[in-house]
Design brief:
Blueprint: E1 22-23, H1 31-40, E2 42-45, H2 51-62, H3 77-84, H4 87-97, E3 101-102, E4 108-113, E5 136-142, E6 153-155, E7 179-180, E8 187-191, E9 197-199, E10 212-221, H5 248-251, H6 256-268
Antiparallel strand pairs: 1-3, 2-8, 4-10, 5-8, 5-10, 6-7, 6-9
Helix pairs in contact: 1-6
Length: about 300
């Protein structure tokens, strides 16, 4: 059953936000882009922030003690317009969180010295929930180029569906299938809040004038009910979707990652009431792929 563009589900929880912190813009993800996010839990936009904005951001964080005081960039016009409302990245936020999403109200800087012998342990950020609902997005911005030698963050595709405690994941070393966020200056990447991530070891000094690797982090919030309100291809073949995350075989019992991603996509499309996973090879959205005798979801085999 193909989700309709105007399908809606129950309203999402709305954070306490002022009207002037809401933003709307054209979405930049299509059906496949949204599915990729559901499968892997992140999307990267290399070099989308202009050099002028990157330079201002570097000057700003290099002139404050950002390890103690979060940089007050969420209320700085050039940062809001150049980074938080960046057309490509904010367009992806718009696709995933819907119209009038809430802009970040606080910016954090993961600022690490270069070089550094230690690296971070695998973790999910505090407050993360195990859920198929996408009520908010955690977003990261590199104002400078970050090479593999500078200790970029790495993420584990599909791990936003993996249930585990912090003390049972932090000791892991290299995990097969991880993705490095090493990038050019001005790169933004969006993540599901619960994705596994860590900082890698920094083995070299700075590439630019800074002696630190700066990675700014902030959160956007949903204020409207989810529905299929992104770039829609009327000919998109939903019956042929592969929902398996990149690391599906390593992380999940057979097909469980794909089932979880399919449920997230159904929720984002506003048709979660049609999400029916009966087991086996059945397609999780309605009766597609089921035997004719079971087309009615209330039928019992």
């Amino acid at each position: 059953m193909t989700p309709k563009a105007d399908d809606q589900s129950s309203p999402a929880a709305t954070p306490f936000v002022r009207g002037d912190t809401l933003h709307d813009c054209p979405p930049t993800l299509d059906d496949q882009g949204v599915i990729d996010f559901c499968r892997d839990g992140f999307v990267i936009f290399p070099g989308v922030v202009p050099d002028e904005i990157n330079s201002k951001a570097i000057d700003y964080v290099d002139n404050i003690d950002s390890n103690l005081t979060p940089p007050d960039l969420a209320h700085t016009d050039w940062f809001v317009d150049g980074v938080l409302k960046n057309p490509q990245a904010a367009g992806a936020v718009r696709a995933l969180l819907g119209r009038d999403f809430a802009l970040p109200v606080r910016i954090h800087n993961h600022r690490g010295p270069l070089p550094a012998s230690n690296q971070g342990g695998w973790h999910r950020d505090g407050g993360a929930l195990y859920t198929h609902r996408v009520e908010y997005l955690q977003v990261f911005y590199y104002p400078e180029a970050c090479t593999d030698e500078m200790g970029p963050t790495e993420v584990l595709p599909g791990s936003h569906f993996v249930r585990t405690k912090h003390n049972m994941m932090s000791h892991y070393g290299k995990i097969a299938g991880t993705v490095s966020t090493a990038c050019v200056a001005g790169t933004i990447f969006l993540t599901a809040f619960s994705i596994w991530h860590r900082r890698t070891r920094a083995t070299s000094g700075p590439m630019g004038k800074s002696k630190f690797r700066n990675l700014l982090k902030y959160t956007y919030w949903r204020t409207t009910a989810p529905k299929r309100d992104w770039i829609i291809d009327p000919a998109f073949d939903f019956a042929g979707i592969d929902f398996s995350p990149t690391g599906d075989r390593a992380l999940f019992e057979q097909s469980q990652g794909a089932i979880a991603a399919g449920k997230m996509f159904a929720w984002l499309s506003g048709v979660q009431e049609q999400y029916i996973k009966r087991g086996g090879p059945s397609w999780p959205l309605g009766p597609v792929g089921m035997p004719p005798a079971l087309e009615n979801p209330t039928d019992q085999p």
